[in-house]
Design goal:
heterodimer; A: about 475 residues; alpha/beta; Rossmann fold; six-stranded parallel β-sheet; 20 helices; 8 strands; B: about 100 residues; mainly alpha; 2 domains; 5 helices; flat
Chain lengths: ~475, ~100
């Protein structure tokens, strides 16, 4: 009866995951979707604690279980409540790493159980028949270990890179080193599973260690511009690692949730790559900023002179325009300028200017980063236009104000085949009558390449921290 | 070959789930506007927190003398909970902003 109830709860939870994910993909139902999935998760967790049985025995160690859950809940809630909007992407990465660690730890414990059965296992093996079952079990444990560890180590590095505590790091031949490392891991795993050698424990821990190392070196050379893709990929890795647990315990809800996220995460990763017109292999093997020195040199030739514009000129230009587009980028997030930006937008609207935002799919550090940021400042949803819509509008736009965005408006993506971002769809801001670029300096953006746009005759530069400049601009317009 | 086929037939239920879920996952996400990419990734991140169930099982059946299993299992429960709770709360915070300006 109780086991049947548990099966039913797992079924309900699986359905809530699918429905939740579905609701999450529509703006109106998204928040409820998240709650639906959370309720399903709670049911599955409580059901497991109180109803799960294995060979007729209930689970024990309730103190440990509830203690762990309590600590995790308090720390998790506090961390998630306190994190700043700009730091959201790295928080997601960190939580993802926790999931990976959980999967790896499960594998460690299960292997330990298996290793203690060793003499018996060897006996069973000789019989032949059950050997495949043991090997299958071991395969899943090792798979969960490798994927979980890579996901954990990789997510921690991605977290460090996003919050700036870890710098890009690559050495010559790193790609070959990575491939070799992965090959060694796979070879060791195959050796362990097929031959079940006497030193199995040693090999198992070597695999664990090398997987962690691989996770580190996997993310290390990848530039910040590709970090969203990497986090999304690691997210789907953790999904697969969770699904391994589903295999291990013949647990349908773990399997459903894990594979669901694995598949959805992979698709999301591919969508992001497409938005940047790069293949996944390219992202994984080729490092963005690091290896493209030749392209930097090539693009460097285009450097000319740029012209600056004063605050008062900008204020006049914008308040007498009829249509203004704002292109936000990472600079806006860093400067925490979203509220100032919304203030400027409201002020201009009150003067009869039509103000909208053009959001590039990969602006910021994560897809949707800008949307979340502007939503925090209460910018209405309808004001945010996606790239295709915005590109249709630029030819009738008077002023485009670029706030801390760079690579997403770089014309080299269209004109220069040697550029590392060649082929990436960009916002065609040049179609507008005036382009005003707010940046802190002339330094190149995340991809490490020069932007010809800044030297075009239509473009004027407005240097300074986005928040400060916007506040001064608002004051200036009020004084007109 | 025969082994493989028998393995498939023994595990057919699980294999069906895997294959169907791959398609469901792709189908469900296919038409998401890029506005929701970050919350969606975060929500998916919370959902793969189901690993916590594995951690609870490991913890719950660990013998009280097996300190390795107890300690690793305990850490697994903590990090698994972090993934689940943190993931859902962060996603809710992101989406809260989307609904706020709706009115």
């Amino acid at each position: 009866m109780e086991l049947n109830l548990l099966t039913f709860l797992y079924l309900v939870a699986s359905v809530t995951f699918i429905v939740g994910l579905k609701m999450l993909s529509h703006p109106a139902s998204a928040r409820n979707g998240n709650r639906v999935a959370a309720i399903g998760m709670t049911l599955a967790i409580l059901g497991t604690i109180f109803l799960y049985e294995e060979e007729g025995a209930r689970l024990g160690n309730y103190g440990w279980i509830f203690g762990g859950i309590l600590i995790g809940t308090v720390v998790g809630t506090l961390a998630a409540k306190r994190v700043k909007m700009t730091a959201m992407p790295e928080m997601v990465s960190l939580f993802n790493g926790m999931g990976g660690a959980c999967a790896a730890l499960i594998s460690l414990v299960e292997f330990d159980h298996l290793a203690h059965l060793d003499p018996m296992m060897a006996g069973v093996l000789l019989m032949g028949g059950a050997a495949n079952a043991v090997k299958g079990f071991l395969l899943i444990i090792v798979l969960g270990l490798i994927i979980g560890s890579v996901s954990f180590a990789g997510s921690i590095i991605a977290w460090g890179k996003l919050n700036g505590s870890i710098k890009d790091f690559s050495f010559k031949g790193q790609h070959i080193f990575n491939i070799l490392l992965l090959a060694v891991i796979v070879a060791l795993a195959a050796y362990l599973i097929v031959f079940l050698p006497a030193n199995a424990v040693f090999i198992f821990y070597t695999i664990f260690f090398l997987s962690l190392l691989y996770g580190v070196f996997f993310v290390f050379p990848i530039g910040g511009a590709d970090m969203p893709v990497v986090i999304s990929l690691l997210n789907s890795f953790t999904g697969v690692a969770a699904a391994c647990g589903g295999f291990l315990y013949d647990n349908k809800v773990m399997l459903t949730g894990g594979i669901l996220v694995g598949a959805a995460g992979t698709l999301l990763t591919i969508l992001m790559c497409k938005a940047m017109n790069r293949s996944l292999t390219n992202v994984l093997i080729g490092s963005f900023g690091g290896g493209s020195s030749s392209a930097v040199a090539a693009a460097g030739g285009a450097v000319g002179s740029h012209k600056e514009i004063s605050l008062s000129d900008t204020a006049v230009l914008m308040s007498y325009a009829s249509k203004v587009y704002i292109v936000p980028g990472y600079g806006l997030a860093v400067a925490q300028a979203q509220h100032a930006c919304h203030e400027l937008e409201k002020l201009l609207e009150s003067k009869g200017v039509d103000v909208k935002y053009a959001i590039h799919p990969v602006a910021g550090r994560m897809p949707g980063h800008m949307n979340v940021l502007l939503a925090e400042a209460d910018v209405p949803y309808e004001k945010l236009l996606e790239m295709e819509q915005a590109n249709d509008e630029f030819s009738t736009t008077d002023v485009v104000l670029i706030l801390g965005a760079n690579d997403v408006v770089n014309p080299a993506a269209k004109s220069d085949p040697a550029s590392p971002i060649y082929g990436m769809p960009i916002l065609d801001v040049e179609l507008a009558k005036h382009v005003i670029v707010n940046k802190r300096s002339m330094k190149p953006g995340y991809a490490g390449i020069e932007n010809e746009l800044f030297f075009r005759p239509k473009t004027s530069m407005l240097f300074g921290d986005a928040k400060k400049v916007l506040q001064e601009l608002v004051a200036e317009i009020k004084n007109l | 070959m025969e082994q493989l086929l028998s393995w498939i037939s023994v595990h057919q239920e699980i294999l069906y789930i895997v294959i169907l879920m791959i398609f469901v996952g792709i189908e469900v996400i296919g038409r998401v506007p890029s506005v929701l990419h970050t919350p969606l990734m975060s929500g998916a991140n919370a959902i793969h927190g189901v690993v916590i169930i594995g951690a609870i099982i490991v913890m719950g059946k660990a013998a009280s003398s097996n300190y390795l299993a107890l300690i690793l299992g305990f850490i697994a429960v903590i990090v698994g909970t972090l993934n689940v709770v943190g993931g859902f709360v962060v996603t809710d915070r992101m989406l809260e902003m989307f609904s706020k300006k709706k009115k």
